[in-house]
Amino acid sequence: MTMVKDIDARGMRHCETTALGVLLRHEGLDLSEPMLFGLGSGLSFIYWDSKAVGFPFLGGRVKPFELTRNLAAALGLELLVGETTSPRKAWQNVAAPIDAGRPVGLQLDSYHLDYFRTKVHFGGHVVAMYGYDEQNAYLVDTAPQGGAVSTGLSGLARARAERGPMTAKHRSFIITAPSGLSSPLTSPRDRIIPAIKTCADAFLNPPIANLGHRGIEKAAQHVPKWLRRSDNQGEDLPRAADLMERAGTGGALFRNLYRDFLAECAQLIDSSHLRTGHRLYAEAATLWTQVAALIAAAGETGDATNLIQAGSLLHELSRVEREAMRALSKL
């Protein structure tokens, strides 16, 4: 058995921030999950409807691994990424750093992991790996998935090799913090404000109508029609609600995490724009939880009134989040 020593196997709410937390704590940096998410400019929105997904998907964050790249840039971290089509090389990319005493981040399809109880293909899942033996890999996943867990090596290989939406080619990564970065928030304005403004600019100026505040407005127009859009409303709508509220989002489609990030920032930076953004994202988080509950109720009862109400709340959310990001863009 090969294991990295002194791993803090702390499962958090979201997969990518959980993995980043493991890797950074091993480098001596211990940041809260909301701070990891916010410094990675992780908040976004997408309304995604295509044949590949079957039923429309509401996403609340940037695409997989973009958060990691953003965080590394924000903190001046060295990010070494490995991608390959060769399973043999892919294993070497993981085993070598673990043998040398370093944990590794992996992007894979959670469907093939032994400990996942819900078998749904999701190629954007991220875990930290800190050990292996002849049969199993030892990982850190989110707290709801068990935190410190293990999975068979054969299943891990299939998870890493899977192809489809949001997958990567056996992607693995390691992070190195420069010396002297034991407290990256000693000059918070230099790191926090650019991360917030990057997030706000992308949200306010989306390149297509499916993204940002425009995407929320599009969702407001389409969600009321979801009963007609589904062939299995009792399954599709509750699953969509569950993905928004419980499937690694931290609740309220990642808005809880961003609300808490802004609250933490407000303790470090005195700014009325920051306080306004925090107040509005606290309001948005409550509204998103209500939207998820209405979508679930529509699926369970078949009552379209719930979806009409959800659409009205989504119109309001587009306005609230647009106002929040406009305030934050003035930092």
TrEMBL record:
Residue ranges of domain DUF4872 in the record: 155-328
InterPro entries listed in its UniProt record: BtrH_N, DUF4872
Pfam families: BtrH_N, DUF4872
Domain Butirosin biosynthesis protein H N-terminal: 14-142
Protein name: Lantibiotic ABC transporter
